[in-house]
Design brief:
By secondary structure, the chain is of the alpha+beta class. The strands form three sheets. Strands 2-6-7-1-5-4-3 form a seven-stranded antiparallel sheet. The chain is globular. It has two domains: 5-170, no CATH class; 177-409, no CATH class. The longest helix has 36 residues, at 235-270. The protein has ten helices and 15 strands.
Length: 410
C-alpha cells in the first residue's frame, strides 16, 4: 500500500483592516523586515551559517525587545537563514530586503473560515482582525479535507494581502497504465500502455497558445526596434509594450492550465502514471538554430509539467520524469523505423509521426523506471490499431469524421 503524500496549496486573498489599525500592521511588517535584515547582515560574513540553536542564542533576547512573540522570532531566524543560503548558493551579493512581508506561524493567527475573518498577533501582544475578501473558487478548500497552515502577510501599493496555505494527505492510486507525454510547440502527443507494455491508446492535444504569445512578443520587439533609443522614455510606448507582453504571458498561463487539466483527465480515465521528459538542460543541449532559440523562452513546457504534476497529485496520480534522449529515433516495437520527412516516419508497415514514437518510448521508459528492468512492446497487443492518434476529445466534428472513415472502410 502506498504511503500518503502531502499536497499543499496557497490561496491569495486581499484583506481589509479596521480604520486606525493600518498603521499598527504596517509598523509590524516594517519591524519584521528590518529584523530579518539585521540577522542577514550579521551572519553574512561568517564562514558557516549558524544553526537554529546558535541563531537563537545570538538574537532571541534582542528581537524580543522589539515586541515580537516567540514564534515571530523563530520565523525571522528561518527566513534569514533561507535568504542567506539561497543567495550564497547562487554566488550573489549580500541581499537587501525591500518588500514588507512576514511569515506568520499557525499559533500567531486565528482564522474563521465561516465569517471570513483573520486575527493576527502583532507587536507587544496586540491582535488585529482583518476581513478577507473571499473568492468563490476558494470554497473547495473549505470541505474539511484541507487544513490551514502558516500564512504570509504582505503589504503592497497600499493594500494588504494574505497568502493562506492549505494542506492535506493524499493516498496515491495503484496505477493500471503508463502515459508517455511528448511536449511540442503546438501540440501534446500522449501514448498509453498497460503494465504489460501493451499499447492501449494514443492521442493529440493541439493548442495555439505559443503562436499567439509569439505574435504579441514580436509586436513588442518591433516597437522597441522602431524606437531603439527613447522607447523607455515614451509613456505611450511603455504602456503598449507592457500590454502586449502581459497578453502573451496570460495566454501562456491559460494554455498551461487548459492542457494540464486535459492531461490529468485522460490519466484519471485510464488510471495511468504520467511520464514527462526531463528537460532541465534543454537550452544548453539543443541546437535548433536562431529561430528555435528565440521561441524557447516562451515555450511553457516547465509550466505545463508543474501544473500537470500538481493537478495529478490532487487526484492521487503519480508523475515521473525520464531521460528523453533519442526517444524519437528508437523503434518502440522493435520494427524497422525509416524517416519520411522531419515529421512523419514509417514504423514497420504503419506511417506515424515522430511525436507518437517519442511519447511511446517515454511510456516504455517510465514503465522501466517503475519496475527496474527493460520492457518492450508486445506483438500480441489487442490495440495495434491505436498506432494512429485518436480523434481530439471533445470535438464532435472530429469524432464524426472518424466514424465516417470507419464506415467507408467497412
Amino acid at each position: 500500500m502506498s504511503l500518503p503524500v502531502r499536497a499543499t496549496v496557497t490561496a491569495r486573498v486581499e484583506a481589509v483592516t479596521p480604520k486606525g489599525d493600518e498603521g499598527l500592521l504596517v509598523e509590524f511588517l516594517r519591524t519584521y523586515r528590518d529584523s530579518v535584515q539585521l540577522v542577514i547582515d550579521e551572519i553574512w560574513g561568517l564562514s558557516e551559517i549558524p544553526s537554529w540553536t546558535e541563531l537563537h542564542s545570538m538574537f532571541y533576547s534582542r528581537l524580543v525587545k522589539y515586541g515580537f512573540r516567540a514564534h515571530h522570532v523563530s520565523e525571522i531566524y528561518k527566513r534569514a537563514r533561507e535568504v542567506v543560503e539561497s543567495t550564497k548558493k547562487n554566488n550573489g551579493s549580500k541581499p537587501t530586503l525591500k518588500k514588507l512581508t512576514a511569515r506568520i506561524h499557525t499559533l500567531d493567527y486565528k482564522i474563521d473560515l465561516d465569517k471570513k475573518t483573520l486575527r493576527v498577533a502583532v507587536l507587544h501582544g496586540k491582535w488585529i482582525e482583518l476581513e478577507l475578501k473571499w473568492y468563490s473558487y476558494l470554497d473547495k478548500y473549505l470541505d474539511g479535507s484541507w487544513k490551514p497552515g502558516e500564512i504570509l502577510l504582505s503589504y503592497r501599493y497600499g493594500r494588504f494581502y494574505v497568502y493562506i496555505t492549505f494542506h492535506k494527505d493524499i493516498v496515491p492510486r495503484e496505477p493500471e497504465a503508463i502515459m508517455g507525454v511528448d511536449l511540442n510547440f503546438n501540440n501534446i502527443t500522449y501514448t498509453i500502455i498497460n503494465l504489460n507494455s501493451e499499447l492501449v491508446s494514443m492521442g493529440v492535444i493541439p493548442f495555439k497558445g505559443l503562436k499567439k504569445a509569439l505574435h504579441y512578443r514580436k509586436l513588442a520587439e518591433n516597437l522597441q526596434r522602431r524606437h531603439p533609443r527613447n522607447w523607455r522614455f515614451l509613456k505611450w510606448a511603455r504602456r503598449i509594450r507592457a500590454r502586449w507582453l502581459n497578453k502573451a504571458r496570460n495566454i501562456l498561463v491559460d494554455t498551461a492550465h487548459r492542457v494540464s487539466k486535459k492531461l490529468v483527465e485522460i490519466a484519471r480515465e485510464y488510471n495511468a502514471v504520467i511520464v514527462f521528459e526531463d528537460l532541465e538542460k534543454i537550452k544548453e543541449n539543443s541546437n535548433g538554430g536562431e529561430k528555435l532559440s528565440w521561441e524557447k523562452p516562451l515555450w511553457c513546457y516547465r509550466r505545463i509539467q508543474e501544473y500537470t504534476e500538481y493537478k495529478a497529485l490532487l487526484d492521487g496520480i503519480e508523475t515521473i520524469y525520464v531521460n528523453p534522449a533519442r526517444t524519437f529515433r528508437k523503434p518502440p516495437n522493435g520494427r524497422k523505423l525509416r524517416f519520411i520527412n522531419y515529421r512523419f516516419l514509417e514504423l514497420g508497415e504503419s506511417i506515424t509521426t515522430r511525436d507518437v514514437v517519442a511519447s511511446w518510448n517515454l511510456a516504455l521508459r517510465g514503465l522501466k523506471q517503475m519496475r527496474g528492468f527493460w520492457v518492450k512492446w508486445s506483438p500480441d497487443s489487442p490495440r495495434s490499431e491505436a498506432m494512429k492518434p485518436r480523434a481530439k476529445r471533445g470535438n464532435p466534428e472530429a469524432k464524426k469524421h472518424t466514424q465516417l472513415i470507419i464506415a467507408i472502410h467497412k
